[in-house]
Amino acid sequence: SEIQGVPEDLLFFYKHLQKGGGVLRVNRCLLLYRYHPQAATHSVHEETIWNHRVKFLEDRVLSTWTSFTIWNAGKQGKKLYRSLSPANRKKVTAFCDVDEKKIAKGFYTFEESEERPKPKIPICHFREATPPFIICVKQDLTGGAFETNLSMLNLKEGRDYYHFN
Predict the structure, then answer these.
(1) Structural Rg of the chain based on CA atoms
(2) Mind listing the pLDDT tens digit for each residue in 40-51?
(3) Measured between alpha carbons, how far is residue 146 from residues 20, 75, 126, 155, 159 in Å?
(4) Contact of 133 with 103, CB cutoff 8 Å
(5) Which of 10, 34, 58, 89 measures 20 to 30 Å from 50, CA to CA?
């Protein structure tokens, strides 16, 4: 049987933040990781890390918001939506995107839901969307287009949006 690892560094970091610790950027190497085939890090499942990240987002950010928009109507945005607690799914007012095909669909139907009728979440262009946002777009992947779109909205990170990617 395969033993599942624990993302100790991530959990340590989250506990540090929860206790009021800060984060500073230092432009030099402070820690060197050595990877080898038997390294414990390989036993940590991606889904385990994802679930810890979602829980942290819910506890630290979404618990203080009454509603929000998920920026990305694609795979990552929908995965985040499906991973949220039922209470936090109800806070999602829309998905926003730049992809005309996704926007043309008009909404995302949460097919896995037990609710009847199944929840339908609108999909709109980012310019029509209402902050705050949880952004599920990988940075440096759009040749600067995403960063340009975000900066044109004059939002403040940590208040109007958080990155989750």
Answers:
(1) 18
(2) 777 778 888 899
(3) 31, 17, 10, 14, 19
(4) no
(5) 34
**Average confidence (pLDDT) over 90-106:** 96
Nearest Cα to Cα of residue 134 among 102, 161, 115, 156:
161
Q: 């007012």: which residue's tokens?
A: 93
**CA-wise closest residue to 150 among 94, 71, 67:** 71
Structure tokens at 104: 């043309």
Cβ neighbourhood burial of 125 (10 Å; 0-12, 13-18, 19+)? middle
For residues 118 and 116, what is the distance between their CA atoms, to the nearest angstrom? Answer: 5
What pLDDT was estimated at residue 45?
Answer: 80
CA geometry: angle 26, 138, 7, nearest 5 deg: 60
d(CA 58, CA 14): 13
- Give the separation between CA 93 and CA 120, rounded to whole angstroms: 10
* Number of residues that this document lists for the chain: 165
In 3D space, the residue among 119, 121, 96 whose CA is nearest the CA of residue 108 turns out to be 121
